[in-house]
Amino acid sequence: VDHTAEFEEFVRTRGEALLRYGYVLTGNSEDAADLVQEALARLGDAWQRVRNKDNPEGYVRTIMVRHHIAAWRRRRRENLVADVPEQGFLHEYGDAGLWAELQRLPRRQRAVLVLRYYEDLPDAEIARILGVSRGTVRSQASRALDKLRIERVFQEAR
Amino acid sequence: MRSEEDLVRVLRRASDQAEPAARPLTELVAARRRRRRTRRRTLLTAAAAVLIAGGTAVAVSDRDDRTASVQDLEPVRKVWPEGISTLPIRAPDGMARRPVLSLGPDEVLLATDRVWSGPRRLDVLHRTTGAIRTLGTVPPEEARSYAANDTQIAWNATNNTVWLIPRKGGKARRLATSVDAERLALSATHLYWSRAEGGISRIPLTGGRSERVAAGLHLRTWPWAVRYAPGVRRNQDLLVNLATGERRAVRAPKDARALTCGPEHCVGVQGGRAFVQRPDGGGHRTLRADLLFRHTEQTIAGRYVEIVANGAQPTVYSLRTGQTAGVAGAVVTLDDLVYWYEGGTITVWNPAAVQDG
Prior knowledge:
The complex is a heterodimer of chains A (158) and B (357). Chain A has 158 residues and is mainly α. Helix content of chain A is 70%, strand content 1%. Chain A is built from 8 helices and 1 strand. In chain A, α1 (4-26) packs across α4. Chain A is globular and about 55 Å long. Chain A starts with a helix and ends in a 7-residue tail after the last strand. The relative contact order of chain A is 0.09. Helices cover 11% and strands 41% of the residues of chain B. Chain B contains 3 helices and 31 strands. Chain B has helices spanning 4-15, 25-46, 76-79, and strands at residues 2-3, 50-53, 56-59, 84-88, 96-102, 107-113, 120-126, 132-138, 143-148, 152-157, 162-166, 173-176, 183-186, 190-194, 200-204, 211-214, 218-219, 224-228, 236-241, 247-249, 256-261, 266-270, 273-277, 285-286, 291-293, 304-309, 314-318, 324-326, 330-333, 338-342, 345-349. Chain B is globular and about 55 Å long. The interface between A and B is large, with 76 and 69 residues. β1 of chain A pairs parallel with β1 of chain B, so a sheet runs across the interface.
């Protein structure tokens, strides 16, 4: 059975949301587009298996975050001196500083924050996605929040 | 000192800056898959990078696989068969169909178009006969959301226009422009919409001036609207019936977050566990630890949610009875229905047709 139409429909209906997710993970449209295409290509190759037993959206988002972290490890090209372009869209709330600081976090720490505060996932699920312990998730999140000088209010609820 | 709320806001606002793909994503992905196939063939000849596990070929490089086991759940089509209909993805003219709204127990609204561009139309699928009839052609701008009353269907497009078309079919008519809506609802006489930051407005279906009717509220399914408690936890704290003016306070348990309510049921997360309760706080029950909401803040028709067991099989959970049923494949969950793809067909499950469950 040819599942091409079904896969294409998934790409079509979920592409925009995945690009948005890619953007908060990577911090720019170019890397987001690359990440989304790579993850969707892998999903396409595994489509038959994934659609039968898994949830394609969760699968592709997991690939995106894992690939994003792994690619950085391989290349060791840490963007420590972040060249953050003008982010006019954030200025009205004075948010540009926070966005710029987010870009300077190590990828894994930023990924934890994205999964927790953008994807709204519980720490146990984040741990499963990243293949680390729940304690690691908590300590990475805590370190990242400290660096960003963010007060933790409802962490205990997780 | 910054708050977690600042972080949530920055991430949400940043995601709005993502640029759409330069070319159709389907094309870009297809091209990348072709490149990957070529590369993999080269690799495979160089080193036998395939393990044979239980008779199944598993590529070693594919390390992103989820390993969670799959529960053996009765499928939705067996547990709640009343709501099921199946249709081909492709219409006879090659256009692709997509369910977008439940029109009550017997009908589902379909958006039918070509991938990315070209003409678009709205069709209606009849549940028991399987017949599909065309309502009419619609403008090319992608729709954000749909709503219906007994006689009309409304949608808002990405260019912030709002359109109406009669349920019996006919010509689409533009009702309003500059409507930046997160959600629409139709009463017998008015179109209502709420803005992402809260606040509800309405305009008569015959046209005319819009007016603001409620500050700080967000629309759910007509006639219900909700309010969020201040803070980052995204707990709803008030239900308002826009038709009667009735207000019902919602009681959130301590440490709850993402408490999301309809008139009968609320769902939320507490200490990493999913829970269900009535708006008044009664009937509270916590779900098994491995059952998580696939999307927080979303119910299906106000009485089901989609959950995943350890990230595995998508599962529909009845808030009324606690019954579960599995869904396989590429599942799309909307506010009032669920559909999934199987080969060249779409199976729609419309809970409005389900009496018990």
